[in-house]
TrEMBL record:
It comes from the Bacteria. GO terms for cellular component: membrane. Pfam families: AMP-binding, AMP-binding_C_3. The keyword Lyase does not apply. GO terms for molecular function: long-chain fatty acid-CoA ligase activity. Gene3D superfamilies: N-terminal domain of ligase-like (3.40.50.12780). This is Long-chain fatty acid--CoA ligase.
């Protein structure tokens, strides 16, 4: 186990210990196509040989952009890393200008894209990228070189000794990848992660994951360009887990029921949508079925682990699992026994309900700069607590600064920001990385995140407001899809709310409220405004008077990555949202004097 020091050691570890037939599995033309561990490594070595023949040198940068997770990405990843070059993954949904910035900033000599749409984006800026020698595509596209040309070029094994020499020369401290953070403001920063950073994170996290080595199937769909899913894929390889790549987020439900995975990583928004769908079906039930559904739900909302609610509760929960929750599990493939949630805060209510339903969701916490895992819950050994992100992993030290900021130290802390030593110095002092998150560690060692340091603000009355706490509470309402709390320097907090238009339409139909299909009309509808106001008031009751959202405005468009309101990891781009809705801001607070 200690022999794993570089990222490409993981598939070799799998080959030595498990040698599975479904190491990487992608659906093509309606068929799931398996790549075995042996084939995976044979192709990765062919890519390495081809790259050497193209003149790739140590520390060259190769950009990889894919709209979905797929086998080719991972073969290419290992093929690149074995040469001592760096894989620079790029978010597929960013703008052409951001593509230009990243590809120019890292000095990419080659770029791989998955499909025609991404090729079009890169081609738009290609004439401004003098260092970019060639673009290859995973799909067959007329006028673009195909990645299989490299497999062909690498078929001749006569230079494998060069690949082996390159591999042997790569040290664990060497740079492995540059990941450009999506950033809620300004240009993205290139986070430099070494082989050691990510390897340490994988080996530090593996004790928290209850896998049956060599017998587990995973569904992978979160963006592989983000360190969260990428680190987990290396972890899967370490444990001999068969990895099936979902076709798309739209087909995730269909794919789950084809593959029957045991484990998958998720983000809170996906769980919210799954729950909303289940709840909507429950409301359509009648008679005893309706009563049983909401009885089970009420039990789930009161869930506490380790039998803390007593034997009578546990007896009822057992009945609820047989009668109601078993159908939830069946809808998610029937075999799902673990979901690991990251990227944003998970509503404690959802954590309780899913764990009660026999679909354990373990919330974790981390950042790109920490490779990423800092802490994660584990249902075993008493290491799970609702409302926390679990205990820090063994090789990560966490302390809380005087102002409440979470500081982290350990082998998975980044090397720094690429070409930005001054920005690196701002966030790393005495070996501790300043996360920018506010939190606390309870007496049992569980870490709780309360807000982003930069996002906390003061009202004109001098009271501190933690917007994420309010936002997460408000998003528990099925009427609210997205929300941003505002009010820095103002007399009271307020909010921009993007309604859940689908749910609002269903509610209107059931309650015979006349609304049109136009979102611009829905946000002005008096009945809708009154109903959402009731939701806001109900949630306000849980907060102090100075924290309550006194006013709100509904926004007519759906917040999205493409629209600029959300980052690729679905965090709020607060500056963009404020600018976009400055008229609504004035409506709430009046014109600035």
């Amino acid at each position: 186990m200690s022999a794993i020091k570089r990222l490409f050691d993981f598939p070799y570890h799998q080959q030595k210990n498990y040698k599975i037939a479904d190491s990487l599995v992608t659906k093509k033309n309606g068929q799931w196509i398996n790549t075995s561990t042996d084939e995976y490594l044979a192709k990765a070595n062919a890519i390495s040989r081809a790259l050497l023949r193209l003149g790739i040198k140590k520390d060259d940068k190769i950009a990889v952009i894919s709209s979905s997770n797929r086998t080719e990405w991972h073969i290419l990843d290992i093929g690149i890393l074995q040469t001592g070059a760096q894989n620079v993954p790029v978010y597929p949904t960013i703008s052409e200008e951001e593509y230009h910035f990243i590809l120019e900033h890292c000095g990419a000599s080659y770029c791989f894209v998955s499909d025609a749409e991404l090729l079009g984006k890169v081609n738009q800026v290609r004439d401004r990228l003098p260092e970019l020698k060639e673009i290859y595509c995973f799909d067959d596209i007329i006028g673009c070189k195909n990645w299989e040309e490299l497999l062909e070029l690498g078929k001749d094994e006569s230079n494998q000794y060069e690949v082996d020499a390159r591999k042997d020369a790569i040290q664990t401290e060497d740079l492995a990848t540059i990941i450009y953070t999506s950033g809620t403001t300004g240009q993205p920063k290139g986070v430099m992660l070494s082989h050691q950073n990510i390897v340490a994170n994988v080996l530090g996290s593996e004790k928290r994951i209850p896998f049956n080595a060599g017998e587990t199937i995973a569904m992978s769909f979160l963006p592989i360009c983000h360190i969260y899913e990428r680190m987990v894929v290396y972890l899967y390889q370490y444990y001999g887990v068969g990895i099936y790549f979902a076709e798309s987020i739209e087909k995730i439900s269909e794919n789950i029921n084809e593959v029957h995975p045991n484990v998958m990583t998720v983000v809170p928004r996906l769980l919210e949508k799954v729950y909303e769908k289940i709840h909507a079906k429950g409301t359509e039930l009648t008679g005893i079925k309706h009563k049983l559904f909401f009885w089970a739900l009420s039990l789930g909302e009161r869930f506490e682990p380790y039998g803390k609610n007593g034997w009578w509760y546990e007896f009822q929960l057992g009945m609820a699992r047989k009668l109601i929750f078993s159908k939830w599990k069946e809808a998610l493939g029937g075999e799902l026994s673990l979901m690991v949630s990251g990227s944003a805060a998970l509503q404690p209510r959802l954590a309780r309900i899913f764990v009660a339903a026999g679909l354990p969701v373990m919330e974790g916490y981390g950042l790109t700069e920490t490779s990423p895992v800092i802490a994660v819950n584990d249902l075993r050994h008493g290491n799970f607590r609702v409302g926390t992100v679990g205990k820090p992993i063994d090789n990560v030290e966490v302390k809380i600064a005087q102002d409440g900021e979470i500081l982290v130290k350990g082998p998975s802390i980044m090397m720094g920001y690429y070409k930005a030593p001054e920005k690196t110095a701002e966030v790393i002092t005495d070996g501790y990385f300043h996360t920018g998150d506010i939190g606390e560690i309870d007496k049992d060692g569980f870490l709780k995140i309360t807000d982003r340091k930069k996002e906390m603000f003061k009202t004109s009355g001098g009271k501190y407001i933690a917007p994420q706490l309010l936002e997460n509470a408000l998003k528990q309402s099925r009427f609210i899809e997205q929300v941003m709390v505002i009010g820095e320097g103002e007399k009271m907090p307020a909010a921009f709310i993007q309604p859940n238009f689908g749910f609002v339409k269903d509610w209107a139909r059931i309650h015979h409220v006349e609304i049109t299909d136009k979102q611009e009309d829905i946000v002005c509808n008096e009945a809708v405004l009154k109903r959402i106001s009731e939701e806001v008031e109900k949630i306000n009751d849980k907060f102090g008077n100075w924290e309550k959202v006194k006013k709100f405005e509904l926004t007519p468009n759906i917040w999205s990555i493409e629209g600029g309101e959300l980052t690729p990891t679905l965090k709020l781009k607060r500056k963009n949202i404020l600018e976009k809705y400055k008229d609504l801001y004035q409506k709430i607070y009046g014109p600035k004097s």
